[in-house]
Amino acid sequence: MTLTLSFLSYIYPLVPLDAIKASSKFTRMAVSFKYWDDCVDPQDMEALWADPEVRSEWINAGETKGQKVHLSRDPDGQPYLTQTEMKAVAGIIVRRHFVSQIDSDMICAIAELESDRQPIATRYNKKTKETTIGIMQILAKTADWLVSETGYREYEVEGNSKLLYRPFVNVYLGAAYLRWLSDYDQKERSEEFIVRAYKGGTKKATHKSTLPYWRRYLSVKESLPSRKVFEVGPMLDNPSVSSTPVQQTKTTGAADATWDSKVSSEDMEEMWNHPDVNKEWSKSGEKRGKVRFSHDAEKRPYISRVELRVAAETILSKYFSTRRVKATALCALAEIVSMRFVNGVGPRPGVMGIDYPTACWLYKDLGYKAYKVESVDDLTKPFVSMYFGAAYLDWLSQYEGRERDPQFVVQAYLAGPKNVNLQQTGPLWLKFEEALSRYEDFKTEQGACTIL
Fold it and tell me: Where in this protein does the record put region Disordered (predicted)?
């Protein structure tokens, strides 16, 4: 699907194309932080103190919880984050907003290259007459675009570039840009493409000028403490129905998201009133007002097949009762796209994998307005994601004014309507058939799936 978004004007380098300068060559704006507390919100300070490695490092340095924590200083007197602090900030941002989408080690390695982890570092590009700011060296206009056009609104930075000196704000927006690059032009991108595009812009992602940066990145990343597996990969190849987390374990803790925190009271009542959901929740000891999500071994929240199906049936009965979309089709697509993970998998957020620009287009241009979508985080709400997934499927069923068959609709949902090949039964359709077979009212008519 081609969206009428002004992406092209934002395809520019985040940093100049010349070699990375030493930290002493950075310029600094009239911003000064002496303590962590000067540039971090109280809840973020709590999150840092809760990190065992940060807490140990701070206590060993003589810091005391409840008092202001000093930022480290380099020989020039400039503040910087230690590797332990940088790792913690990146990890917190990824866990909050980019689970299974961005590798925190990628963020840490880029921070090393871009700023030496210095929050008030800036770099002026004489050619473009633009200044990059902070740990991830973000342009102010890139930050404004990420907020206004792509929905990353956890921190409202529009018109206030000074917020980019704050570590959590800067790392959040740097991670948001990396995630956008990972799905650039609606194609799954490699780690190398993402990193080189971050350096030189998407047009220079394969140009020889960004190759040295990629090599330095690999070297820095390999030297980071506690290396982890890179988590951004081809979304449709890695998740499979067989790897879906079916073991239902319920975890407790104040930080855990609940159904009630992501679903309206009206929709929660619909869930409780369904006998299958009521039985499942009662059996696992859930209480009204605080229903926990199931979690896999890595503590990632996901929804059960019963919950998924009832959510799909509720959305369709309320908003698409006269349309051709069936609940089983939505459930099967969710199995493939997100493995039923609440936050989604790879670059696609939510259980239905509908990204923010697509949801905005469906809402603003096509009139699907039963649920508002004001930020990308809204799409991690199961009913919101399900609604826009159903809306997109409904639109595809009449793509270009023609009634489309199930194979076209499924392939178009997963790969885009311009990439459909009906000449042969492709792997996407076979995956869909496998996923569809897991839902009990799967029917066949003359050997074909009845999904629409």
Answer: 240-260
User: pLDDT tens digits for 83-106?
Assistant: 999 999 999 998 888 877 888 999
Measured between alpha carbons, how far is 119 from 34 in angstroms, rounded to an integer? 11
d(CA 414, CA 406) in angstroms, rounded, equals: 12
Report the mean per-residue pLDDT for the chain.
81
Please check whether residue 38 is in contact with residue 70, taking contact to mean a CB–CB distance below 8 angstroms: no
SS3 of 18-59: CCCCCHHHCEECCCCCCEHHHCCCHHHHHHHHHCHHHHHHHH
Measured CA to CA in angstroms, residue 258 lies from 277, 286, 293, 342, 445 at distances of: 15, 11, 6, 10, 40
The position carrying tokens 């009845």 is 450
pLDDT tens string 151-185 = 888 888 888 889 999 999 999 999 999 999 998 98
Place of tokens 């990396």: 178
Cα(204)–Cα(100) distance, rounded to whole angstroms? 26
- Pull the structure tokens for residue 22: 């030493």
pTM of the model: 0.54
* Span 64-90, pLDDT tens digits: 999 999 999 987 788 999 999 999 999
Residue indicated by tokens 């979309």: 325
